[in-house]
Queue: 4 jobs
Job 1
Amino acid sequence: MKSIFLHLLILLAFSTSVSFAQQKPIEALDAEKLKGKVEHDLVVAQDGSGHFRTISEAVKAIRVYLPKPITVHIRAGVYQEKIRIDGTLTQVTFLGESPETTVISYGDYAAKDNMGTFETYTVQVLGSDLTFKNLTIQNTAGPVGQAVALHAEGDRLVFENCRFLGNQDTMFASGEGSRQLYKSCYIEGTTDFIFGSATAFFENCRIHSKADSYITAASTPAWAEHGYVFMNCKLTADEGVSKVYLGRPWRDFARTVFVNTEMGAHILPVGWHDWGRAAARETVFYAELQSRGAGAGDASRADWAHVLDPKDLERYQKPAVLSGHGRDADFYGNRWFGDERDSSFNLEASFQKDKKSFPQIKPVLLSAGPELEVFENQVYKSLGSRSLQLDVFKPKVSENPLPVVLLVHGGGWRSGDKILQRSLAIRLAELGYVAVPVEYRLSPEAQYPAAVQDVKEAIRWIKTHAADFGVDSSRVAISGSSAGAQLASLVGLSDLPVHEGKSDLVASSQVQAIINMDGVLAFHHPESAEGKVAAEWLGGSYEQVPEIWDEASPSYLKNPTLVPMLFINSQYPRFHAGRDELLEKLEKAGVFSQVHTFPDSPHPFWLYDPWMEPTEQLIAHFLDAIF
């Protein structure tokens, strides 16, 4: 009976839907009986309306090394708790209602029972892949010496819209190899109130000094490229505070950099302190770039500190600081520290660039006419809070199911949008096809092979919904331009498990035809000029990850699923590197292929007249021959 009871409790935990909007009581769970078993979202509420009354009970109940992410929703209240999150706890988001109303509070300090600094924490985070949002973590001991609010040593930790309140040693951001992101947070303290050995990125944070003292005390390991990086932050202080240093080295090799930070008048002109150890000046790296405000760097800064050149800015951007070696994927394949959307590749920007060399060109931006049906922003894949969408353009009138063409936009795997394929989709729909521009994850959000898996899922989705859109699922083509052409070719030719990914849809991702518009077929190739942009997507340079560069090259697939292919190219050979080798394979296998080159054309020729019409005609004639 006891085991049946436990089983029912676990099922209850799994089946309970939680949200702050849900007001009806949730049946409480027994943390002791469920210790290490729960792997579903939980609610913590002091009034008993959740699964648990304390955060510690919820932490105790969660399964170690969770198979998928969960969220612990923490309702408003002041939680007087000392919380330890062990290294076996991963993939959890602790979500408060707001930092003003959801508060975790405790008051230990170093001199209390001789416990020492590192046992004074209110919240200790040793686990990795954890996120904390909309919370306050505070140590209420007061100005009694070292008293830590947050003790964080795990890797891939995210704190967003949180407050960290205390005095001396408020935040221990530490752990060799630990990477931590603090986004839109408020951090206050007196002396060394941000200290430790982590690589930590502070983005749009307010750093508030409560006394004349030191803000940071980094102990960066000698081998680490980055310690603390403050980006777009604001340094403020209590009234009367006027002598604050940016930092001092807790250990040799400390690294602390402030970028584009507003500094109040409380920051001393000298800026930095050596903690009375002149030798440390030879090993530490303290620097600023584009500081502003009354306390900004000037000629009075310590002569052993650095003022960076604007060309160094890229080195201190979030991806450069927080990326590890290889891929930085979370459970869903997204970069754990979030993405910065790159909108640099768009129709207007391309036109302004290309018209300098091709003054006769005209950008094509069409609207669907009354003869077409349009279904925009159809969600084909959900990844936690992230949804991927596609658009469907089709003739309103058709007696029979129609062949479908999925269209994959370009942009160097890091930029672009499905709207870039809209005009071509409209033209193909007018010619009697169902045309489907597809969104996929770009490299700032998720590295290879996420985009390949996304496009394959879009194929499965459109086949699964074939009846809804009048699609003949036995006649599926995929078209891509530039980076999208490389993706389309890899999607169409490969059935490797790494490219298929995981899916709940039973439909196949196989296509019957591929259109490649100026997309590379081999990354490491004599004709290829791919470098940094490709490396960002593939997780490193060719010298670092040669096997990935080859795996992502359609021409280098060992056992490709060969289908008819159309290659439409500009005048630039670099954009069809590997094409000729693939053509040989197609010819040897007796598989139909065509090649057309537009002389004297820009790379993104498909975006402009006079090439749009011949491009659509080439595609239509090719597909008519196949289908």
Job 2
Amino acid sequence: MAKLIYRVVSACGALGYGFPEASLARALEGRIDAVISDAGSMDAGPYYLGTGQEYFEREAVKADFRKMVAAGERIDGPVILGSCGMAGGRRNVEWMLEVAREVFEELGVRDRQVAVIDAELDPAVVLQALHDGQLQATGKGPELDATALRESTIVGQMGIAPLITALEGGAKYVFAGRSCDVALFASDMIRHGIDAGLAYHVGHVLECGALACDPGSPSDCLVAEIYDDGTAVFVPLDPARRCTPYSIAAHSLYEESHPQLQYYPEGVLAMAQTEFFARDERTAGIRHSHFVHAGKPWPLSIKLEGARRVGARRVSLLRLAPEDLARVPADVPVYGRNGVQNQPVPKSTHELGILIETRADTREGAETLASLLTHYLIHYGYAGRKATAGNIAYPLSPNLIGFQRDDGSYGAVVPSGTRDPVFLENYARIKAAVIALVREEFPNALEHATFEFVEADAERPVALVRTVDRDPVRLAQRHAADVARALNGATAGADSLRDLDAADAYEWTLYHLLLDEHVIRDTMFPITYYRVDGKTWVRAGEARPVYREIGERGYCGNLDDRTLSLIADVPPAGEGAAAQRLLDMALVIRSKDAGINRLTLDVVFRSTAQYETALRSNAFYASNVAAVLGLPASAIVGTYFVDSCQAIKITVDRPNISASLDEHDVFGAQQQAALEAMIISGG
């Protein structure tokens, strides 16, 4: 019988999402070797790296971390956070450390070693790498510009080496800057001698918390158990959830450009030979994943991300009469027409704009309530949900605009929208559930603030006008002209929100691999140790990461992401019978950013028969997919078949870089509507 050798709990998908204390308590009923959470991402846009601000509410982050520390004090193993403060820059990390000091003091944490790993890089080092030809593109854009790089905040995405070094240096608590989310989980497993292929794949499943469950949610915990026979089993902690081979295999596709190849600083995770199995009705596992020691740029390469300020931003949300909609120029986003996607909504599809608007006596009160409502709304899981990457599309980063009203009270508004028919069918119930969750989890937020969900569609259109400029006088003039152009002679309703000063606009300036191993080994990711007694932290030493080669040599499988599992770009021979709606054939139809420059769409089918019908129809050959999505054929990176979970993955070059000034959907989570409308021939 296989012996349990390691057991780890992922607290949630990102620190601040929230998770039930009861789930973590159930995890602690058995052995736990580490408590880990990803604390951030680049998904929300460059603003958070450029400013050093956090995406989630401080109260929510502190509540999550407090529960993790309370659990950590009960085990011998470490507590690990990566991409601290959202973007993982130096200021982001310091924000998280202030929260940690409060929590340590409140919980009486004494005589513990803490490691802080810096991920920020001097722009001068990056400019030298640019000069030396040591930056490699990861796809289309952003274009490298020396002036932009000088003005940027730049971080590197660390792999396992800095984390393992910190743990071997005796750290009980690790606070890492920008991190590869999978490395947070793989590092301690590999330190304990667990096979790298298994460790990386387990890390990928765990990094979103319980999102790999059925039903899935990033606002819950998930446990992985590692056994000495080379298997890993995933254990949900909420009795209402279960892990199945299907759910684990499907999640293995999530946010990745390719279904079976994932790229990390130390090599390539290859899953073409992975087996997904059920242990019982509620738990499922994996085995035979491979981690490959590949050629250049692996090892060693580090992905760099850079962000800089573009200018101040002014926004107006103009309520229109439906008869005036035709007046508005085609390039202006209007909820009810083209608020969610650049392409106008087809006649057979409904687009709903959702503007969450709050009012309070203080700015903090208005913004906190709006933020809580919108965070719950985007990720709320409901029965029959298909768009599991997110329920709504945000056009702005940050997504919230705070302002003061004429009567002296404060307001906040979050514009968003969706075309997902399943969400729209359930919208009333989802809205009620989200309000109930906020009332239960954060009752104080509702004590001194009120809210309204403003719905917009073709009968109640709302135009979004936004202007960016570095000069405040010119910004006001340009925005007035932009509003006049958008209205084009129409009159905006009296309840429109006009001339709102939104947060400054930032842009991505860098999303490239750094290939200079000397900089990676000798400069990046310095580790500082502290001895901690509550809020008193005493510097106790420094260290450099120790790099060791890992991964298999001589791997015989295919590592070419342009050919492995590729659906041939060949039109079907003819029309078949028994046409079906893809929406009826699929369990999941989702879209999501795969980095800042690519979008990936996953279709997970209900049955083997329906999956094979879709493949036989060949509706997913690249040229046809381009036509369905309204993209040029050159934008299709690949369309792939995935037998392990009866899925089809489509990866495309993003029409714009994520969170650009003309953005409709920062997270790329609501770009699947054209797929939902597809009709599949019986083949």
Job 3
Amino acid sequence: MRLTGLPFDDGDEVLRAAIDDASVPALLMSMVHMTGDLSILDELPRPYLLIAMDLQGAMSEPDKQTVRDRAFEVARDYRDRGCPPPFVPDEHQLRVMLDVISAGQVSEDLVDYIAADLRITGADQDGPALSSTREQRAAFPVVVIGCGEAGILAGIKLKQAGVPFTIVERQSGAGGTWLANRYPGCRVDIASQYYTYSFEPTDHWEHHYATQPEILTYLNEVMARHGIAEHTRFDTEVLGADWDDAACLWRVRVRPAGGAGDGPVEELSARGLICAVGQFSTPVIPDVPGVNDFRGPMCHTADWDDTLELAGKRVAVIGAGASGFQLVPAIAGTAAHVDVYQRTPQWMAPNIHYHERVGDGARWATRHLPYYGRWLRFVSWWPIADALDEQITIDPEWDAGGLSVSAGNQGIRDMFTAWMRAFTDDEDLLAKVTPNYPPMGKRTLQDDGTWLTTLQRDDVELVTGGIAAITADGVTGADGVHRRADVLVWATGFDVNHQLGPIDIRGVGGAGLNETWGDAAYAYLGVTVSDFPNFYCMFGPGTNAVNGASLIYNSECQMRYILGCIDMVLASGAGAAAPRAAVCRDYDRRSQARLQTMVYAHPSVSSYYKNSAGELPTLFAWRIADYWKWTRRPDPADYDFTGASSGPRLQEDS
């Protein structure tokens, strides 16, 4: 799909239906692109606030209708003029447009960052200008571990740059977590337009918050368009990789995945190694007494058993975080009974669009109205990303008994609480589902009322207080009550602080990355690690923007930086580069120091993001705009260079 909108000649009826279905704030901006007339913004009503998870902004219904009526006239005129190339604002004009759509919230230092994502400028479209030659890049083979969204992106950008690569994926297909997590109800909690590669927009999303099958289809379509499958080895696991300092090579050991683990081991040699396994690749099953005694079918949501028959069965779902929150409403009514075992209640953000389908008219607008899709993306992400910085920062003067961390954070707590009360007046249930920690302290769940409505069904029970034991035929709660179960589902999250899992990465002098990291993983900008030359992480330590950002957007920042690192090595004539130890330590120190000022570190927040020392090694500490700027291009002063530049093309050695 073209970024600026496809020409159209549809009739007035189609235009009217599309306008009526579209996001009003995005329509306002698209009108400027169709006319080149910024005075429209002075003539028409505008949002006085962009609201998180609301594509329409804070406007009265009459004001929205006024905008829609004018937009219909503008779109019809644009059509009748033959859909000429859309107007592209200069920096001052864009500043005016941003002031209108964000109600003045966009500060001057964010304009370049937003302009790049809108594609008003080309800063993010083609990546960094490369100083190395194509011949040099052709002699820098790369192995990518993982073929999820980050691995696919790595392949696309490496291919465009002329860097040879092989992606190694242990599953039988692409998609990573979106292939593994296929439980009923699985969907993204970031708006679909933002959970999209910026260079691969689409108007094919069926839901405002795409379901797992939609996302998997999208990833596979993108992969096919860019010809990445032919560079990918599926059903293959990486055992480990060793850095050969003399040859400036990574020796990567792989073997067929699954089976008894005794398949033939092969070695891939590469100049660069990209670890794109992410933070959600190692599911956790808690050490509960009797965990292996259950005699019925049992699985983790991240390893869903497609043969499970739930109809007429009693199902125990252990965990009420993101996956349990999605799973339970999807199976209630099919199963005879569902018991939900909740250790800690989760905050729920009001989101009327969460299960809502995208209308045909809205898809038409995304496809045809100039820049509409780009502004829709902005409306989707701006209110939940950098705009919330104040609400997640701890005010040291604020005292609310651990229930909130600032006045703004308390306002969010009040809003979330009011939303829950809109769906039930059962005080016992409200006491069970209302967290006793500040909002935003964990990943906030998206809710349109489905969760509380489901918990009030006669065939669903919410069990709190912990689990005493698993038995052959059910679960015994800490309350001493034994509840029978035919099927047991673990919805208990991931080991995010040991993201490599069993993969054994060894750098200079044979140092093991798992041992170096322990449960306090670190990387410079979340990408590179001292003493591990030409090794790069995607969705690595310190990059999980737990509230609001799209992993795909962050991956694009990381891959742009990785390409810059490869180019830096080649242009320098060196064989390898790794960040200086002092640079790496300083970045980690500053990151952890800032995180301690944020709601995630609050003592009343218990989450799997915290390690044994109470640190938050996986979380991102700054604004996404900052990350965008820092990852534009690596600074050679941050790196130690070693070795000669000669090296083989990608090879496989038995």
Job 4
Amino acid sequence: MPDAQPAPAKALSAPQKALHKLGLRRDIDLALHLPLRYEDETRVVRLSDARDGQTVQVEGTVTHQEITMRPRRQLLVTLDDGSDTCTLRFFSFYPSHQKALAVGARVRVRGEVRGGFMGRTMVHPAFHAAGGELPDALTPVYPTSAQLPQAYLRKVVASGLARADLSETLPPELLDGLKAVVHGTWTLRDALRYLHHPGPDVSLDALEDRSHPAWQRLKAEELLAQQLSQLTAKRERDALRAPALRTAPGGLHEQLLAVLPFALTGAQRRVGEEIARDLARSVPMHRLLQGDVGSGKTVVAALAAAIAIDSGWQCALMAPTEILAEQHFAKLIGWLEPLLAPLGKRVAWLTGGQKKKQRSEMLALIASGEAALVVGTHAVIQDQVVFQNLALAIIDEQHRFGVAQRLALRSKTTEGDDGQSREPHMLMMTATPIPRTLAMSYYADLDVSTIDELPPGRTPIVTKVVSDQRRHEVIERIRAQVAQGRQVYWVCPLIEESEALDLSNATATHAELSTSLQGVLVGLLHSRMPVAEKKAVMSLFTSGHMGVLVSTTVIEVGVDVPNASLMVIEHAERFGLSQLHQLRGRVGRGAAASACVLLYTPPEGGRLGETARERLKAMAETNDGFEIARRDLEIRGPGEFLGARQSGATMLRFADLATDGHLLDWARGAAAEMLAQHPAAAEKHIARWLGSKAEYLKA
């Protein structure tokens, strides 16, 4: 008799698929799916007492119904509650509406009352037959999709909330500390029940700004789960093995220091020592190197690479764009190749656009170990790239890479003499400084090194915010700069005309400047150009033959032309604060006085939006990348800094780093204590809040 086959998995219904799409798979997911807002259906208001613009629930009798065709097809219903009348107006309606709102029907209606020439109206109000008890709690309105009506979602959330295991995961000693932070004795169960069905006497402001103690309890639990998952990931990594890399007296590290054409700053020396201490341990380093634009992170990376190569291992450096990878390649070749040649070692170059013959040659050098240092784009992590013994992976502008890409680089392990695999050390670099609260939360599993000092000789950049109406003055300024032998960047946000956005594009601006600046070589650079053409343009600009470079944001990071002294950013109001700061950092790299012009175009007949004004104001007021990062966090939230770090995992849904620092401080201390004293409870807490998403934090 053949073995019985397992029963096929039951197909999901359309509502179940929609729930899964919203991430609602478990009872606890439903319990944690909190309302966007609330509707007050606990009381009926007399129409004569309702204020214009107020959303109220009224009860009355339908006295008239008609369908009119002017100015468009609509259903008009007159409701009389004995104190006044109101016209209910529906532009989208069905026969069921007409039946439920037939003349003589007694109904309860909820909507915004508007006054007008023709009397009071409600447009598309909610309604149902009158009668029955009024609810004793506010009615929740949940985030949903088109496939899930509120009535259905309310029902499944209520059943999920009833079934979910909401038993306490926090041990008594941590609960005592939490009570002082959230001002009350709310349990998780009480907080969730209250937030799903708050009483009518609650302060809606406290619910909406999430300052209510029930919200505070929830946010504290969420932050604790995040801190626990980060600490767990760090401990799991600490249990892995990595090659212990040490410098040899007179070795490559010392030789590189001796041939550098400049002295390291104190900050560069300090972070270099922090990295060297990590590399000497047999535990994988997982360090974030942050430093403002132009602070000299590349040379710190080169010194770390020298330590790995000195120890007989390979190093890989991965950058997000070919231009940035080439900048690194040129610098590292200049510094390291003369020192590697006597050792029979080379620097390899890997990008997606390479010809097959060159690529095959590079892959062979990497596999044999002759390539001690490999520089490139995401091509470095492809399956066909096999390292002989990779010990150090350096990722530049780490927020531009996804979780899967970083995990792929980490997975290129090497077997040690004892037969155990060795993980590579990881050094991630960013020129977007991370604000303190963000480092404490999303980067809690990383060690952070900060270069907080710029090399000497850098000139401060003067930043001016200028309306596009003064464009001709800016072009005259460019003419003067070029006449003095200086070079200029002009950055545009789009390559081609867009019907959706009224933006000048790089191509049109290039044509305009070429015409206006007769006798000046004006170049054009954007991401859709062939690689060879991009290289040719960059070569003309870096050599000083090209006076003006019109570009999209491909020059955001890594381009280093000390002679460039003016940066014009067109439609600056369309860029993020961090991106504006990165672009500004392309000038001020030499001794000449440098300036950045933020050219903005206000909407027709109006002012710039609040967010755009705040960004431009911040840029004009400070050159400090850490202050820029702090303001960016206030304006935009954490997304800009995280990039794809949390890809596939939820960002903080409830806690707000700008206002909940006191809860984050509690969560940090509580997580360490809970993992040490109550590991089973910690595991249950992580599973409740993050499920499988905790895996993503390991990248």
